[in-house]
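Hi team,

As requested, here is the filled-out complex form for the 3-hydroxy-3-methylglutaryl-coenzyme A run. I kept the field names the same as last time so the parser does not choke. Let me know if anything looks off before we queue the next batch.

— J.
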Amino acid sequence: MPGEIAIGIHDLSIASTEYVLTHATLAAQNGAPVGKYERGIGQLSMSVPALDEDIVTMAATAAAPIVERHGADRIRTVVFATETAVDQAKAAGIHVHSLLGLPSATRVVELKQACYGGAAGLQFAISLVHRDPAEQVLVIASDVSRYDLGSAGEATQGAAAVAMLVSAAPAVLRVEDPSGLFTADVMDFWRPNYRTTALVDGRESISAYLQAVEGTWKDYTERGGHPLGAFRAFCYHQPFTRMAHKAHHHLLNCCGREVDDAAVAHAVGHTTAYNAVIGNSYTASLFLALAALLDNADDLSEQAIGFLSYGSGAVAEFFAGRVVPGYRAHLRSAAHRAVVSRRHDIDYARYREIHEHAFPADGGHHPVPHETTGPFRLAGLSGHKRIYEPR
Ligand code: HMG
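And here is what came back:
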């Protein structure tokens, strides 16, 4: 019976970019009080990709240590979730498949629904493993969040990838049934095909997110999910880290609980460590929250963790995961901290130059300067084709 098999995250690895822009630098440029960023939205800095980095190089960098540790023999599917695709037709995961030398007997597909794509990928992977518990699925969530220079959204940019190996008898997290689901047709955040930056109605997006928290929780409890008190911590999608506090505050309110800041901080505290310095990584954000929780909290063995994925537009899902005893031996905490600490600070002028960079759409040969010190790079564009290579 499918329901009897424990399936979930067997391994998890994160990657980000070469560069980082601090909110202090942004505030000095645009005249905003830095406290608005650091306390108001809970962001200290944001990852900025070098010119030779993108969703593919981050994804391959995140996934490589997983393939190195477990091999690729059981990986039959690669699910690549992103909302900042590099091509309208070809799945970005095929470039990753090639860079990592995965077997040709693999299916590779790209998924999109704003920030919700990563959680969708995880759930779809679980269904595939139910069908054949001998198979493993590599789920990758990778995004670069970009808003217009000078816009309110600019302070909530960022970039990262998370790779997860989904398998039966997982070593890190068992994902449980049921899920609470919610969809509503709202235009809170979107990016038409002709734009490279997202459009957003900031206030509307926050209230749409909170409505989705309420909607998913209602469905989750109606389907027999755990009561609120059963959870040790909650991982929320974090477009900015204060959003996790707002979301949990709202959930407690909906459940008729007394809301106090200490209870909220206890529930989401450890989950914000990476997102606060990396920024919004869209599909990857929820799983950066999980990585931060696992890397920083005391032993969580057998504890239930709540997950709330929200993707503008809007689709949301709430589900529970249970931490597997012995999980700490499988974490990559030192490597994850290095992902954050290895980035180089850039000044506003350099950030602006990168933000404004665009490849000419003429099909010519356009090499990219060597900048990244990561293992994979975008070498350039030639004949409208993206060329990737190991560094
Ligand atoms: P804004 O207008 O720049 O900021 O927009 P604000 O005036 O609303 O201030 C932000 C907070 O800072 C407020 O706190 C202020 O009080 C506080 P709040 O009232 O919200 O609790 N503040 C200060 N605190 C301390 N010291 C000070 C100070 N000054 C002000 N001196 C906004 C902020 C987040 C709306 C903007 O950055 C934005 O539009 N970002 C993009 C949209 C976004 O992230 N929405 C989140 C929900 S939608 C979502 O999560 C999906 C998404 O990830 C996309 C996807 O699904 O793909 C975006």
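Two things worth flagging: The mean pLDDT is 97. The first strand starts at residue 7 and ends at 15.

Thanks,
J.
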